Amino acid sequence: MWRKIFSFPLRGVAEQLRVHMNLVLMSAELLENLIEACEDYNWEAVGSVAERIARLEREADDVKRQVELGLFSGTVFVGLKEDFYKLAEALDDIADKSKDASRAIASRQPDREEVAVLFEGEDNIMKMIKGTVEIVKILMTSVELLDKNMKEALQLAHDVEKTEEMLDDIKLDILKNLTRNEKKMSPLSYLQIRDFIFLLDMVADAAEAASDVITAMIVKSGA
Length: 223
Known about the structure:
By secondary structure, this protein is an all-alpha fold. The chain has one domain: Up-down Bundle (Methane Monooxygenase Hydroxylase, Chain G, domain 1). About 80% of the residues lie in helices and about 0% in strands. The chain contains 8 helices and no strands. The longest helix is centred in the C-terminal third of the chain and has 35 residues.
């Protein structure tokens, strides 16, 4: 993994990065379970999924620290160590934002009618969640292709940016619908759901930030 791109041995760092990526992806994928529990109005399940995401985020943090130690002691050119560190940080932020979003919606139980607002219209929270999981999957594929096909990895990094723009449009539609229904909701529920939407959007933002790191790494390699 990544040996072709830089031809410097990573001495175990590559495997730790792979483990870290898997944990990050799992945390994002659980967002689908979270929103399905919301749609079923099963707040016990919402809380359970949120806790699972938090555990994965803590595991990802632990692995990231091992990556940092490996980069510190490994024989990787000093300029590239910074690139790998930035990539690990950017990936870790995806799990962190997934945790924050899940905890926001699990923090209290709104009324059923208030939760239903999230699922109104074509561009609803379910579409945003699915797009968010998809953008993380595209990103991970881009990372995996770094040592196999840098041109394709770069194209996927660009696809992450395009998908993030699409998710921004969906987010705006959801927020507009939320505002239209504001008077039907308690102030606490309105703020809670709005915060959840913004925090969910930060997952996609974190994926885009990671794609920027990948683009910089590829450009630096002279590909």
